[in-house]
Amino acid sequence: MSSQLLEGKRGIIFGALDSNSIAWKVAENAHAFGAKFVLTNAPVAMRMGEINKLAEATSSEIIPADATSLEDLENLFTKAEEILGGKLDFVLHSIGMSVNVRKGRHYTDLNYDWLEKGWDVSAVSFHKVMQTAWKLDSMNEWGSIVALTYMAAQRTFPDYNDMADNKAYLESIARSFGYHFGTKKKVRVNTISQSPTMTTAGSGVKGFDGFISFADKTSPLGNATAQECADYVITLFSDLTRKVTLQNLFHDGGFSNMGISDAVMEQFTANEK
C-alpha cells in the first residue's frame, strides 16, 4: 500500500493469535499504513499461536502480558513507550474468552468461577488496560482505543452464552471510560460490533457456522470479513475520525438494522411452493 495514513503513529495490539485473528490482520494493516507497534498476548495464548511470524513480518517486538494483571499491563505500557520512542496513539483490545462456552455449560447452568474468569478476561481487562494507560499517561492527545465486540450484547443469541454478558459490559466500559479519556486527555474510545467471523475464538461457539450463514443471508451487504474489519479499525486509528468516540460501531453489512430478508424468507417458505 502506498498510503501512509498512520505514518508516525505508535500503538499496542492485543490478541493476535494466528492469521485468522482480526488483531493479526489489523497489525498487518497498521504496518502497511506506516505505524509502529508492539504485539502482546497472554503467555498461554502465545504458546498456541504463531505471533513470532507476525512480529517478524511487521518488524515488531512482542511483550507477553496477561491483560487481567495490572502488574503485567504496567510493564507492557512502560516497555512499549521505551521501544517505540514515545507515547501511544492507538490501542486495540481484541480479547475474549468464556470457559463456560469452552466446557459446554449451558447459560442456565453456569459455573460462576468460570463466569468470573471469562468476565475478567473479556471485559474487565478493557478497564484495566485503559486505567493503566490513564495512570501512566501513556496516550497522546487524539489517540484512539478500540475494542472488538458482537451484537449479542444487544440481542439474544442463545448459544453465545455468557459471552453476551461480557460484551455488554465491555461496551459499557468503553462509554464510561471513554467519557473521562475524552474530556481529560482527548482520547477516543470506541467498540466495533463485527459480523460473526470465523476466527479461532469464534469457532468455539456452538452453532457458529449457522450464525455465519444466517447473518450473511440477512445482511444486505453480506458479512464483513476479518480483513474488512481490520480496514475499519485503521480508520479509527487515523486522524480522519478524530471526533468519533463513545460509539458502538456496527460493522456487519447492515445486519443490525434488519428484521428479515428475502433470502431467509425463501428458506422458510420453500416447502410451501
Please outline the helices and strands:
Layout lengths: L9 E5 L7 H11 L3 E5 L2 H6 L2 H7 L3 E2 L7 H15 L3 E6 L5 H5 L8 H24 L3 E11 L13 H23 L2 E7 L13 H11 L7 H12 L10 E4 L10 H8 L4
Parallel strand pairs: 1-2, 1-4, 2-3, 4-5, 5-6, 6-7
Helix pairs in contact: 1-9, 4-6, 6-7
Tags for this entry?
273 residues, alpha/beta, 10 helices, globular
DSSP strand content: 5-15%
Output the helix-strand order: EHEHHEHEHHEHEHHEH
Total helical elements: 10
CATH class: Alpha Beta
- Outline the biggest β-sheet: 7 strands, parallel
Number of domains: 1
Radius of gyration: 19 Å
Range of helix content: 40-55%
What sort of overall outline do the alpha carbons produce when their principal axes are compared? globular
Report on this model:
- With 273 residues, this protein is of the alpha/beta class.
- The chain has one domain (10-272): Rossmann fold (3-Layer(aba) Sandwich).
- The chain is built from ten helices and seven strands.
- The chain has helices spanning 22-32, 43-48, 51-57, 70-84, 99-103, 112-135, 163-185, 208-218, 226-237, 262-269, and strands spanning 10-14, 36-40, 61-62, 88-93, 139-149, 188-194, 248-251.
- The protein has a seven-stranded parallel sheet, sandwiched between helices.
- The longest helix has 24 residues, at 112-135.
- The model has no long low-confidence stretch (mean pLDDT 93).
